[in-house]
Design goal:
The complex is a heterodimer of chains A (128) and B (172). Chain A has 128 residues and is mostly beta strands. Helix content of chain A is 9%, strand content 57%. In chain A, strands 1-8-2-5-6-7-3-4 form an eight-stranded antiparallel β-sheet, with helices on one face. Chain B has one domain: 60s Ribosomal Protein L30, Chain: A (2-Layer Sandwich). Classes of the chains: A mainly beta (128), B mainly beta (172).
Amino acid sequence: MNEGAVFEEGRLGRIAVVRLRPNEDLVTAIETACREHGLRHAIVRSAVGSLVDAVLETGERTVAVPGPGIEILTLSGELRSGTDGGIAADLRGTIADGKAQVYGGRFRRGENPICITLELVLQEWLPA
Amino acid sequence: MRTLVQPGAALQPRRMLEWAAPAGDLRVELSAGQDLLRGLVTALAAREVTHAAVQVLSADIARMAYLTGAEDETGERVATYGAPTWLEGPVVLLGANGILGPGPDGDTLLHCHAVVVDAEGRLHGGHLPPGDCLLGPGGAVALATPLREAAFAAAFDSETNYPLFQPRKIPA
């Protein structure tokens, strides 16, 4: 037995086709959309969109990238619900600013407002 | 958190979600000499897939352009795209996400953003315009998740003054 690994058996379920409108925060709006539609656990399958400004966490550092029109290049991560019913998104990815500089990190909650749109596909994770 | 005033009135709901039915995923390989986006659109159309979430898993690129955001000087929108940046290969794609669906003119559109590394090891990334990403010798591999019952379709968005992909129910 490997005490350094925790498994959760399950399967992928329904697919959520999501759009966030401007000025919604990337992290909290995805959490709210899941809560509103009863999606407890999910993984990001694809996402295309832009941010007004971006704040990324990279270890101990926080990187603030001014926009507007920051492109989200890749987005990965998951949403998990706790036993208290609360849902938390852990979203990481890469972005490019208007000078074509590329940055990566974990999107900080409450500090990544959508600029034009976010097109997002989530897939439900159903623990056995 | 800074927010921007959009050209049109705010539309509701702020968060849109439609449920799609799970369907089998498709792994697709594209050979050298094709355009990444047009090649994917054509290959998936041949399998009758016109609505999908797409992850590009790998791609070797001989020549490509990408776009990054800029302020819109006309004030008609809060942001637009700047001039394209062209890269000469070999360029290695590190990751890309895409949404496939009917575009504003009815043709199938793959809206795709990518992060790549150029021949000197510099990172780049942005919006990929269709027709401007020529695949090199290694071709490309993508995973498409077809969307059934609900998917994205482009429609004019009066709030942002852009045609945008919107979640829509698809009649069976």
